[in-house]
Amino acid sequence: MGTSAEQARQAVVATRERMEVGADLLEARLRYDLDPRQRLRRDGVKLAAGLAVVVLVGAVYVVRSRRHRRAEKPADVDWIAEMPKEWRERLQELLAEAADRGDLPSPTGRATKGGRRSLATSLALRAARMAAPVVMSAAAERIGRRQAASAPGSREG
Q1: What is the pTM of this model?
Q2: Do residues 148 and 154 make contact, with C-beta atoms less than 8 angstroms apart?
């Protein structure tokens, strides 16, 4: 009887040691999975792709809303043609005098609010165009690795 009790104690001790090792491994795995730096290293491409998509969708939304808003404005109304004839003649005289004196500003070629995109929109679109190939190639590489790892006969781990 002494031997079976001793064997049972040894079995319990061995089981406790295995459980402690398993718990330590589980704790280490959880710490690794929950560590923000490891998560960023592991999922950085996904996060960058998601951010690029959000920026791109936001830029498209802003551009389309501005175009839509611009199309709604009655900016195409020819207000000069609606002026009385005397006013139009006086305006033409004043413009001719100003042109003769050189008082009219020359076009500078700078972007205006009515003619081109804003600086923020231009930068967002440029960043999206620059980031898209990098994000797409990284995503394709990652998908290829996953498919190769999940193919029958390949063991990773």
Answers
A1: 0.30
A2: yes
Summarised one tens digit per residue, pLDDT across range 62-87 is 988 888 777 666 555 677 777 788 88
C-alpha angle 134/135/139, rounded to 5°? 120
Q: Which amino acid is at 119?
A: L
Let me know the angle formed at the C-alpha of 123 by 42 and 74, rounded to the nearest 5 degrees.
135
The domain ranges of the chain are 44-103+116-150
- Helices within the chain (DSSP H only): 2-34, 36-72, 85-101, 119-150
Can you tell me the distance from the alpha carbon of 157 to that of 150, in angstroms, rounded to the nearest whole number?
12
Nearest CA to 122 among 59, 61, 53, 71? 59
Residue 49 and residue 131 in contact, taking contact as beta carbons nearer than 8 Å: no
